[in-house]
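Tokens for chain A. Residues wanted.
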């Protein structure tokens, strides 16, 4: 049996590895900022929906939590459609 030749590793410069890591960090940061924005906008709705699921799974009625989730979703939709500027960008924040 003849041993197979092992191909030499393609050497990448540290500069190229650093560029790839920087791009990865930027993408992760953008995803994190988007997630924070969504959670800020729909946070109460998500919490109430989770509470409703937990109540239903435990066999209890979740009509109050579901109603709260619907009300918070309506409020979030109204706030999202409101005009924002530097003079009122933090209005309606809870």
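Reply:
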């Amino acid at each position: 049996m003849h041993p197979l030749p092992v191909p030499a590793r393609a050497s990448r410069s540290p500069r190229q590895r650093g560029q790839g890591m920087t791009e990865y960090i930027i993408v992760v940061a953008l995803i994190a900022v988007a997630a924070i924005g969504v959670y800020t906008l729909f946070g109460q709705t998500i919490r109430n929906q989770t509470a409703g699921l937990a109540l239903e799974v435990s066999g209890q009625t979740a009509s109050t939590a579901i109603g709260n989730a619907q009300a918070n979703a309506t409020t979030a939709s109204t706030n999202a459609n409101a005009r924002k500027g530097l003079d009122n960008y933090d209005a309606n924040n809870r």
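The chain is about 65% helix and 0% strand. Residues 24-81 form one domain.
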